[in-house]
Amino acid sequence: MNIILMAIPFFFLLIIIELVLDKVRHTQYYRVNDSINSLTAGVLSRVTGIARRVIPFSMYALCFDYLSLTVLPDTPWIWAMAFVLYDFCYYWFHRLHHEVNVLWASHVVHHSSEEYNLTTALRQTSSGLVGWIFYLPMAVIGVPVHILVAVGALNLIYQFWVHTQHVPKLGWYEWIFVTPSNHRVHHAQNQLYIDRNYGGVFILWDRLFGTFQEEQEDEKPIYGIRKALHSWNPLWANVHVYTQLLQDCRHAQRWQDKFLVWFKPTGWRPTDVEKNYPLAKVDLNQFKKFDVNLSINSKVYCSLQHILTLVIAVMFLLNVGSMTEWQKWGTMAFIVFSSYSIGSILENREFAVVLEWLKNILVCMALVMISVPSWLAVILWVATLSSMLLLWDLWQTRRGKLTATAHTQ
Ligand SMILES: [Zn+2]
Ligand SMILES: [Zn+2]
To answer: How many angstroms separate the alpha carbon of residue 194 from the centre of ligand 1?
Structure first.
């Protein structure tokens, strides 16, 4: 089984422990809407990854078959060497994903949260397609595909625990490894911290290549991105920088600029576009986290729906190998639809309740038509029927508000 899937229960256990700590210490590092968005981005990344991973694996395997100088044996030393080498390649992969416009468009999802907690770690992109290029040196020196996949998964799993504000600096460990403190710097948008600390497991690469910055006592990190997302829509989180680049490409008058806009350093815009379509400058002194006021009912409804979508997604990832094509694509479409729809409720959109009615009716129809294990069917029925009750209440509240507004006009 996939190592990352095996780690999922531990991820959730640690998230629950951090949530309890958050309540006990009154730290307020968690917000329902932000956490749902981070977890949804993670779900979308894993689910779309099923389609996306075909290319990287095939390309790596192809390069390994035709370009490898030798085939390295399956020994502990080779595994250790591959683990370190993978992180070295990851450093450059990560650094360039911050420094080049089109690569940033893919990586930005991971940085779009204005909170910093363990759910932020799971906020991953759904659009990475060229990352495999950075690992090709490993194919050339003969690291077999199964070792690359395993050390890649271990690298990703290591990065999970560093997304917390509850762990202080860790003495000598800070010198060698990526830690919560030096990764907090990586997620901050303060001038002092921005574009620093790219390592995945080892912070040594940053010290070596001049991109290291230590967390300062008197400079509290402000998390998030300079061009704030201001949305709870996980699909928009994945495409908003691509959309900006596409617009700049369309608006640019010179043909060279239409091409260069994708590959220039992050933030670069053609001079004419910058002049004719200026973007608002950020003032971190006025920084305010994005939020939309929600009733407690909406929060409970979204949490319930989110857990339901999570259960369906995990079941999907575990069973995708034995599914027919239409079941596979149907479930993927449902998960994407549900993620978008929950985001719309979180944003208090007018059409959101209608989308949710449609989704719940679809789930009921699917439960009647498709055979699922009985324990899962019970969970899904109970969750869907209670969701519909909550939704009825949300619907009534919204109608009540609309009528009240009409009367006052
Ligand atoms: Zn990053
Ligand atoms: Zn991170």
So the answer is: 10
d(CA 379, CA 236): 30
Q: Report yes or no: 171 and 177 within 8 Å, Cβ to Cβ.
A: no
Report CA 213 to chain centroid distance, whole Å: 24
Q: Report how far ligand 1's centroid is from the alpha carbon of 104 (Å).
A: 9
Residue of 189, 195, 196, 177 lying closest to 223 (CA atoms): 189
Residue 152 has pLDDT above 90, yes or no: yes
The pLDDT tens digits of the residues spanning 74-103 come to 999 999 999 999 999 999 999 999 999 999
Measure 28 CA to ligand 1 centroid, in angstroms: 23
> Are 17 and 9 within 8 A, CB to CB?
no
Cβ neighbourhood burial of 24 (10 Å; 0-12, 13-18, 19+): exposed
Q: Which ligand is nearest to the CA of 117?
A: 2
Minimum-distance ligand to the CA of 211? 1
CA of 307 from ligand 1 middle (Å) equals 27
Nearest ligand, CA of residue 123? 2
pLDDT at 405: 57
176-215: pLDDT as tens digits? 999 999 999 999 999 999 999 999 999 999 999 999 999 9
Phi/psi for 177 (5° steps) reads -110, 160
Ligand 1 center from residue 91 Cα (angstroms): 10
- How far is residue 93 from each of residues 48, 202, 212, 285, measured CA to CA in Å? 20, 14, 16, 32
73: helix, strand or coil: coil
Cα 356 from Cα 223, distance rounded (Å):
31
Q: How far is the CA of 349 from the centre of ligand 1 (A)?
A: 31
Residue with tokens 């998960």: 335
Query: Could you give the 3-state DSSP secondary structure of residue 144?
Result: coil
Cβ proximity of 59 and 252 under 8 Å: no
Distance from Cα 198 to the centre of ligand 1, integer Å: 7
Tokens of 274: 């910058």
Tokens of 130: 């060229």
Which residue, 122, 291, 129, 110, is CA-closest to 198? 110
Query: Domain spans of the chain?
Result: 3-209, 296-402
Residue type, 382: V
Kindly write down the DSSP assignment for every residue of 32-44, as one continuous string: HHHHHHHHHHHHH
Ligand 2 center to 38 CA (angstroms): 12
CA 281-285-290 angle, 5° bins: 75
